[in-house]
Amino acid sequence: xxxxxxxxxxxxxxxxxxxxxLVAVFKKIPSKSYDPAMKKWNFSLEDYSSFMEAVNQxxxxxxxxxxGENAVGLASSSRFxxxxxxxxxxxxxxxxxxxxxxxxxxxxxxxxxxxxxVDIGYSAEVIGVFKQMDSRNYDMNTRKWxxxxxxxxxxxxxxxxxxxxxxxxxxxxxxxxFAAQIKRSASQTDIPDADLSVVDSEIVQSLxxxxxxxxxxxxxxxxxxxxxxDMGLGKTIQAICIAAYYRKEWPLLVVTPSSVRFTWAExxxxxxxxxxxxxxxxxxxxxxxxxxxxINIVSFDLxxxxxxxxKSTFQVVIVDESxxxxxxxxxxxxxxxxxxxxxxxxxxxxxxxxxxxxxxLYTQIAAVQPxxxxxFHSFGLxxxxxxxxxxxxxxxxxxxxxxxxxxxxxxxxxxxxxxxxLSQLPAKQRKMVIVAPEGISAKTKAVLxxxxxxxxxxxxxxxxxxxxxxxxxxxxxxxxxxxxxxxVLELLESGNNKFLVFAHHKIMLDAVVAELEKKxxxxxxxxxxxxxxxRQSLCQKFQFSEKxxxxxxxxxxxxxxxxxxxxxxxxxxxLFWNPGILIQAEDRAHRIGQTSSVNxxxxxxxxxxxxxxxxxxxxxxKVLGEAGLSETSFSKTAESTNYCxxxxxxxxxxxxxxxxxxxxxxxxxxxxxxxxxxxxxCEFDSGSALQDTxxxxxxxxxxxxxxx
Length: 708
Fold this sequence. Notes:
- Helix 19 crosses helix 25 (649-663).
- Helices cover 40% and strands 16% of the residues.
- The protein has 4 domains: 2-64, MutS, DNA mismatch repair protein, domain I, CATH 3.40.1170.30; 82-182, no CATH class; 209-423, Tandem AAA-ATPase domain (Rossmann fold, 3-Layer(aba) Sandwich); 428-665, P-loop containing nucleotide triphosphate hydrolases (Rossmann fold).
- The chain contains 28 helices and 25 strands.
- It is an alpha/beta fold.
- Strands 13-14-12-15-16-11-19 form a 7-stranded parallel beta sheet, sandwiched between helices.
- Strand 24 (569-572), helix 22 and strand 25 (598-604) form a beta-alpha-beta unit.
- Keywords: Coiled coil, Hydrolase, Nucleus, Repeat.
- Residues 216-371 form the Helicase ATP-binding domain.
- Residues 1-67, 100-171 form the HARP domain.
- One of its GO terms (molecular function) is ATP binding.
């Protein structure tokens, strides 16, 4: 530390201890002169400003300026000292910050929970102020100064008194959120444990440690938050637990993509056993009542058609995949926003909170904390790098993202990536998704019901039994097409860029591919007709593609030997009675090279063959697990698996039929050929095919290959 003092008429002298960097600066000044007797340097006043400019670049030196020459002393009588800081008067002071005639313009930006940075061009006057701040820190790389938040009021007060300096303050939302740090009072770093005694013990005991933290954070924020955990980290169970904490304020509204409405209904029944059976109401048409039950589940699109019923407000609302609300102009967003602003508790769930495109985050922030940024334009200027164009404003960019992330994480958002909590996750997480029954037409439902009725009566021989079951399986594929395609599109809209879709029937594979082509999404397809030589190159394309890409795979043709570990999500569009084939298919993603926990989604449609296949698969996997042959059973890790067929005698007969036919089956060739036949929807006499496998029969090479 040192100071400048007058030295004669037109010179000044520097009184300071030895510093090598400083001496190097002295030697570059043209008017330098060294007095050996006093061991001090002096210079011409003409060089004063360039001298101060050079000295102020040295972080280790603080030089008090000449009295009367741009000297700025920090007012010790500042209104803002320590805990006396009044946040409202600070906000008021910072509102009139614009100075059109200012020569130096800069802005304050939050860089951590405790510090902010001032980004401004060089001004000796400003640097002089910076150097008098106790918490100052100069970053040699970025050439910017940063300070503790507690110095913010004092610094802004002085900078605002300069006519030639304009500094954009921190946004009001930041000042309100970090008021504790600005006032120097202890801010809370650890989230306190909430008292969950009012919630069913079943769900509380099932929470992993990081999920419990999510629930604690939500309750600390009074039930208004954006839960932005990665896919597969159990946002559903956390949301149900948070909502259950506020059960006294129900009825509850759950807004979800239409493909997962019934999955939510199952999840409530599973995790909250204290609910009476009729307390969940899944809205299927616009004519249904939105407030019929304690828990009401509606899709985004139906919500926008039910605006007449939206006058009744809900106190607790969950929005699943809340990034569907990213565009304020859409009908779904216009219908949802008033509901969310009126509710006391708002739980938004999104695995992809669009941090790189802040404009898409605005509606979600406004839904949780309307007071943060009442005007989109001010948000756009700060975080979307808003630019004035000939046609209007462009908000598609991004700016000050670090500040936005710190602000959201402190106030409304909790986000954990899989990599953060990998040690708490199982290697595979299976989940059953009940696909919406209205995707199945009335005609198809009638056909399936008739098939089931006929099967319940029994058959004369095993051959007829098996053919009937395969036809039933084939009809199920046709019935599920609409729901499966919808689910795949919703996954893509939710930001899942790489995943595998397994199906068995050609019609299902074709339908998914057709939809991807229509939406211009890249894909690879591997089925029975894909030559072996091409399979490896297709896998490589999937593994290393930078773009969105989906792998469409045949259950029986692509369940072995392929590595597709770039995906950590596997979707089964259809079920299969042999769990060995399902596990092998899951392991296309869950293999060496996979650094993440793999999510497996089984799409199950009620009123189809899935009613019998799903319990059968669960049973078989349980047996494999007990024998140590399968690492995870379904029920332990699946979100909702307690879905079994009703125990009426007719269904029991069909279930036994499936069990008997496909569990005791030794004639695998018979099974494969029949599958092919059912797939082609043609009559096939498997008896003659089997005779062909006898040693004495001559078989055409093509047929032999098929049988092999």
